[in-house]
DNA sequence: ATGATTCTGTTGGATATCCAACACTTTTGA
DNA sequence: TCAAAAGTGTTGGATATCCAACAGAATCAT
């Protein structure tokens, strides 16, 4: 469809940076990961990092975006399983950040995560519920992203159930309108 | 010792090309591997290939050089085990080429392999037998490289023993002078 | 506290890589 | 046999990446 050619150098470099970041995230908390750490691990120049990303938060955002697009490939069907997969991807990502209650960071991270959830939701809703207006879809995505993010935080706090067991029971109450339409 | 800084781009690119070549060598014979194949597999531009290598034979040569330097790291002791390791590396490499009796290629490949064996032998002999003149070492390396290459061809033809079983019995007859001096 | 160290984000110039051509040779296939 | 297709090796200009340097912010150590 839209195969806009990208310079192979940039796909290589972005992959190196993203992989380095993901790898580092398994080792230390986000707040302890510096741009220097990432570029050293990726074996690319620090200036090159800033050619691709605004700062470390931008990297976090695009990293999440990448994870979501990989874990939710070409899925256009709006159903419970899709939402469970999305929720699981979110909790996985937060677990990989392994950060808890760092004042000043939490807000930024939370906004980034919600924004990316919203992007996925808009995509899903646009593909499925084309009978809704753009504005309605946008608002639905917004409130649902807040809901899912809040649920992920609560899940992280309790840790009693698996992500799926945790979220599935309340799916019918989440974004009730489109679910009713398609089931 | 000699940490001459090299641009990280060239180490990346060379590694990509070498790995692509080694990977392709496991799939098809050397004669069927084109420069295009390698660059496509490595995901680098064809022009970049010629920035690093003269042609596909140059790549073959440097690939063997790389393999030898990896399989025979910092070994300076001139003894039977070292020669067995060298011989095994040669037969492994030839097996990975999986080429047999292609007129016109054989000569070039044989010369490349012998040259690289010779390089290793000169290094080993220089480190061990410093009581010999440069000219003597050079000539010893030359005749030994021919011997080892010939042995590897014979081994490839018969295939009856392991590389080690094949070569170890005749080691004392190979390059007898330095072996006597050090044992 | 304060000085030292480390990190950040940015810049200018050097260099490696990309890309699209080109002429030429080799291989393919009808 | 011949024409089309694919590979080779090279070139010039565009672009991504490197590198060294910088000032300012943040962190660390005493």
Automatic annotation (TrEMBL), chains A, B:
Keyword Membrane: no
UniProt cross-references to InterPro entries, sorted A to Z: Homeodomain-like_sf, HTH-type_Tx_Regulator, HTH_TetR
Signal sequence bounds: none
Boundaries of every HTH tetR-type domain copy: 11-71
Keywords (A to Z) from UniProt: DNA-binding
Superkingdom of source: Bacteria
DNA-binding region: 34-53
Species per Swiss-Prot/TrEMBL record: Chryseomicrobium excrementi
Matches recorded under PANTHER family: ACREF/ENVCD OPERON REPRESSOR-RELATED, TETR-FAMILY TRANSCRIPTIONAL REGULATOR
Molecular function (Gene Ontology), one example: DNA binding
Protein name: TetR family transcriptional regulator
